[in-house]
Structure formats: structure tokens, C-alpha cells
Design brief:
This protein is of the alpha+beta class and 199 residues long. Helix content is 24%, strand content 19%. The protein contains 6 helices and 9 strands. A hairpin with a 5-residue loop joins β3 and β4. The chain is elongated and about 65 Å long.
Length: 199
């Protein structure tokens, strides 16, 4: 049960926009304190008492056992009063670069051991390249050595993905990443497409 309580829950503001990721434990505290509602597949919302009742009839979800009842672990919650859109800046860090590139060499597509991955400057620093989101990618040691101080095309290499600043949800500390059929996807897609782009 302790592991389940640490699983991630997507948090929406009262305008149904994704604003945060929290744990099942915190989500249930917010729900019990009447600060949030559970959101289900049909976009209905449930307060604590209602969710507790609905949980009895849910056979395909993970449940938390208390001394007197079982309650389903929510996947998405909506805050009842919070309507802001907090600024989300993704820190330019080694961990976030690895997360963005999915621990995958962006030239050959391999997923080697962590110590066989390097951070490569697409336009080398020796040629004026900067350490920015749109100029760094993960590269395996072999591809990095092959590329050296050249541009990828000069060595016959091609990027699998164009490097860019990731959306904050990509770099959230997920305990378990939701799959593409998850309820999260409806709101993550909304967050991706409706977030204003930086000039």
C-alpha cells in the first residue's frame, strides 16, 4: 500500500488545466479536506464521500485498504478553488535532459547503460554552439566520438528528434508514468496544445 500511496496523480486547476503532479497520499488528503474532486473518464467529479461509495463498485482499479473501508487510488484530481496557471520553467539540468531524451541516443536510437550516454552539443562549442535546450542532446559514446567537433550532417549523422525545451509535465517526478490510454493523456494533450509558446 505504501508504494501505491506514492504513485503520481495529475492535478488540474478549477478550469480543468493540468498544473501539477502529486502523490496519491496528498490527493486523498486534498479530497478528504474538500479541496479537490476526483475526475473520472466521463469527466464527472466526486467528493470524498461519493468517491468512497463509487470505489466499492470498481473492480479494475488499485485500492487502498483502511481499517473500515477500501478507496480507489485516484488518477486525476481537480482543485475546487485554485484557478491560477502557475509559471512552469523547466530547469536546464542533466536529469531533465536525460528525461526529455528518454535515456536514448538521439543519433542512433540505442538506449545504452547510463554511463555510456553523454550530453552532446549539436553545434559544437568550439564552433559557437551554446549550452541551451535546442542545442544539446543525449548521444552514446560511439556516436559522440564519431561526430567529434563537427555538425551532425558533416559526419552522416541525423537527429531522431529536434531538441527543444520540454513541457514541464515531461520532467515531473512521476512515480509511474501513465500510458497512452491513461486518463492523464486527455489533460496532458490539452496542456501541450494550449500552452503559450516562448518567443
Amino acid at each position: 500500500m505504501q508504494t501505491l500511496l506514492k504513485h503520481s496523480v495529475l492535478v488540474l486547476n478549477r478550469h480543468w488545466a493540468a498544473v501539477h503532479v502529486t502523490s496519491v497520499r496528498r490527493a486523498l488528503i486534498l479530497l478528504y479536506g474538500d479541496h479537490a474532486r476526483v475526475v473520472t473518464d466521463d469527466y464527472s467529479t466526486h467528493d470524498f464521500a461519493n468517491w468512497r461509495g463509487v470505489s466499492r463498485f470498481m473492480n479494475t482499479v488499485r485500492k487502498i485498504q483502511t481499517p473500515s473501508f477500501q478507496i480507489a487510488a485516484p488518477e486525476v484530481i481537480m482543485l475546487t478553488r485554485y484557478g491560477k496557471y502557475p509559471p512552469r520553467q523547466v530547469k536546464f539540468s542533466r536529469r531533465n535532459i536525460y528525461t526529455r531524451d528518454n535515456h536514448t541516443c538521439q543519433y542512433c536510437g540505442r538506449m545504452p547503460a547510463r554511463d555510456e550516454l553523454t550530453i552532446d552539443h549539436v553545434a559544437p562549442r568550439s564552433r559557437g554552439g551554446k549550452s541551451t535546450w535546442d542545442n544539446v542532446v543525449l548521444a552514446c559514446v560511439q556516436c559522440n566520438m564519431k561526430k567529434g567537433d563537427s555538425l551532425p550532417g558533416e559526419k552522416g549523422l541525423k537527429l531522431l528528434n529536434t531538441p527543444k525545451r520540454p513541457h514541464w509535465l515531461e520532467c515531473s517526478q512521476f512515480q509511474s508514468r501513465p500510458d497512452e490510454h491513461s486518463l492523464w493523456q486527455k489533460f496532458i494533450d490539452n496542456a501541450y496544445w494550449n500552452t503559450s509558446l516562448q518567443p
